[in-house]
């Protein structure tokens, strides 16, 4: 991920370094992190955000209105990120369920003494995780 120092970001966004400082103080933009020499480093997302800010300024929005709009857009993004993560978890759970069924059939075909040996080799945390997954799949997800 490319990170920009203030001068580089100002040049890329075609605005002054003072403007970047001002927008940072207003909370319109935030540095991604700081370098070892304590320079503020901004992400490519910040460059895109600056382009949105300039576009909204040209449409005659005040900086306060722009901040409000950007904040509301970020909230929608947070909801979208949460939705994406939940979808990803659902896909992973479906994969785990398939694998659990495969393992279950393999273990079901083993002699009890063989199955016991396999489970004894598992770490206690792994066994607890497997048991929790088994219970979760038996109960299913809670309905809202």
Automatic annotation (TrEMBL):
The keyword Cell membrane does not apply. PROSITE patterns: HTH_MERR_2 (PS50937). Keywords: Coiled coil, DNA-binding. InterPro entries: DNA-bd_dom_put_sf, MerR-type_HTH_dom, MerR_fam. GO terms for molecular function: DNA binding. It comes from the Bacteria. Residues 3-72 form the HTH merR-type domain. Residues 79-106 form a coiled coil. This is DNA-binding transcriptional MerR regulator.
């Amino acid at each position: 991920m490319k990170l920009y120092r203030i001068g580089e970001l100002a040049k890329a966004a075609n605005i002054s370094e003072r403007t970047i400082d001002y927008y940072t103080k207003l909370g319109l933009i935030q540095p991604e992190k700081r370098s070892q020499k304590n320079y503020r480093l901004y992400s490519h997302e910040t460059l895109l955000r600056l382009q949105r800010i300039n576009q909204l300024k040209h449409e005659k929005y005040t900086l306060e209105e722009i901040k409000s709009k950007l904040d509301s857009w970020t909230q929608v993004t947070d909801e979208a990120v949460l939705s994406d993560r939940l979808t990803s978890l659902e896909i992973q759970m479906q994969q785990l369920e398939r694998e659990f069924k495969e393992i279950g059939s393999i273990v079901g075909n083993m002699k009890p003494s063989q199955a016991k040996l396999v489970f004894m080799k598992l770490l206690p945390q792994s066994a607890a995780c497997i048991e929790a997954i088994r219970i979760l799949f038996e109960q299913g997800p809670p309905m809202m």
